[in-house]
Write a structure and sequence with these properties.
Number of strands: 9
Structural class: alpha/beta
Number of domains: 1
Distance between the termini: 35 Å
GO molecular function: oxidoreductase activity
Organism: Streptomyces atriruber
Shape: globular
Pfam families: FMN_red (PF03358)
Keywords: Flavoprotein, FMN, Oxidoreductase
Number of helices: 7
Helix content: 40-55%
Radius of gyration: 17 Å
CATH class: Alpha Beta
CATH superfamily: Flavodoxin domain
CATH architecture: 3-Layer(aba) Sandwich
Largest sheet: 7 strands, mixed
CATH topology: Rossmann fold
Strand content: 15-25%
EC number: 1.5.1.-
Order of helices and strands: EHEHHEEHEHEEHEEH
């Protein structure tokens, strides 16, 4: 099974990436030993230029196209963003705009664990007023436990337990996609972006 982690952290090192890695480890750890879980991390800071270009051209570049393909082929998704102005970051939203713009059914039925980082606990409601509605609109299945980590949560009691609980919930919802995975609404097989772009250039 394939677990894809989308991290919208901008700094290096990043608390957003740290939380994403802990959630991925928890989710993978709750699968049985007989289940092979492959984890792929998508760092949005590395895709910022291509994401911006895709908004004006309507076409993802090669790296962004590969990231979109990873999300479309995921059996489970972890999406983590820093909080900016009491909501998700613009880079985070623009990436998922690009994903849904290329394939409106990319996340339909996909289990998603939402998480966020911020400087203060006052922004913890971002999980419910911003992230859950976004993924509900994309028709993903959002796990019950979201994880918010404020600056004071690192090293404090409670964060590790929330991470473990959220990871376990995601693991229970993940199911391997069929080999001939077909997009919802009879759109046909999911074809990688690179193949679609090559077909367009031949036409």
């Amino acid at each position: 099974m394939k677990l894809v982690v989308v991290s919208a952290g901008l700094s290096v090192p990043s608390s957003t990436r740290l939380l994403a890695d802990r959630l991925a480890s928890a989710a993978a750890g709750h699968h049985s030993e007989a289940t092979d879980v492959t984890v792929e991390v998508v760092e949005l800071r590395d895709l910022a230029v291509e994401i911006a270009q895709s908004l004006t051209t309507g076409f993802p570049g090669p790296a962004l196209g590969a990231a979109i393909d990873a999300v479309r082929g995921a059996d489970g998704l972890i999406a983590v963003t820093p909080v900016f102005s009491a909501s998700y970051s613009g880079l985070f939203k623009s990436f998922f705009d690009a994903v849904s713009g290329f394939d409106k059914d990319a996340l339909a039925g996909t289990p998603v664990l939402v998480a966020a980082t911020g400087g203060t606990a006052r922004h913890s409601l971002v999980l419910d007023h911003a992230l859950r509605p976004l993924f509900a609109y994309l028709r993903a299945v959002v796990v019950p436990t979201g994880v918010y980590a404020a600056s004071e949560d690192w090293g404090a009691e409670g964060l590790a337990e929330r991470v473990d609980r959220a990871g376990a919930e995601l693991a229970r919802l993940m199911r391997p996609a069929p080999a001939d995975r077909t997009a919802p609404d009879s759109l046909g097989p999911v074809v990688p972006f690179a193949e679609q772009l090559a077909a367009l250039s031949r036409g």
